[in-house]
Amino acid sequence: MKTRSIQNTNLTYEILDTSCNSINPEINSLLNNDDFFSDFHEDFENVDQDNIFAQQLEHFDNFNVKILQHFACYYKLPKYRIKKDLLIQKIIDFENNPENAEIVYNRKNMWNCLNELQNDDYFSKFILFTS
């Protein structure tokens, strides 16, 4: 690391050169260590499991079976004669599949629009959907 001090009348400042060549060797060895990142990979797997569990709780607490059946119908999933827990699992599996990202985004967007229309004083008269 190069250091250069310059004094000019009443002003004193210092310029530090922090180029990539001067990376701390300890940091450099960590960045090149595959074992260092494998620990993070395991943590991310746990985060995924926690995220799925949180989605299950959200669906179970916030949506009744009728609404979940609407979601399943939109996704073209089997929906009848299935217990709520299994229906939620099928929906979450579908929504967490990256191949279905566009249809999931569209469903969530349209659901939000539907809720906004139902909550509007004027448009709520025209919405016949009941949840």
Which descriptors would you attach to this protein?
131 residues; mainly alpha; two-stranded antiparallel ribbon; 5 helices; 9% strand; elongated
- Model regions low in confidence, pLDDT < 50 over at least 5 residues: none
Radius of gyration: 27 Å
Largest sheet: 2 strands, antiparallel
What is the ordering of alpha helices and beta strands?
EEHHHHH
Neighbour order of strands in the largest sheet: 1-2
Overall domain count = 1
- The secondary structure category is mainly alpha
Number of helices: 5
Number of strands: 2
Helix content: 55-70%
Mean pLDDT: 80
Distance between the termini: 65 Å
Molecular structure report:
The protein contains 5 helices and 2 strands, in the order E-E-H-H-H-H-H. The model has no long low-confidence stretch (mean pLDDT 80). Strands 1-2 form a two-stranded antiparallel ribbon. The termini are far apart. 59% of the residues lie in helices and 9% in strands. With 131 residues, it is mainly alpha-helical. The longest helix is centred in the middle third of the chain and has 29 residues. The chain has one domain. The radius of gyration is 27 Å and the shape is elongated.
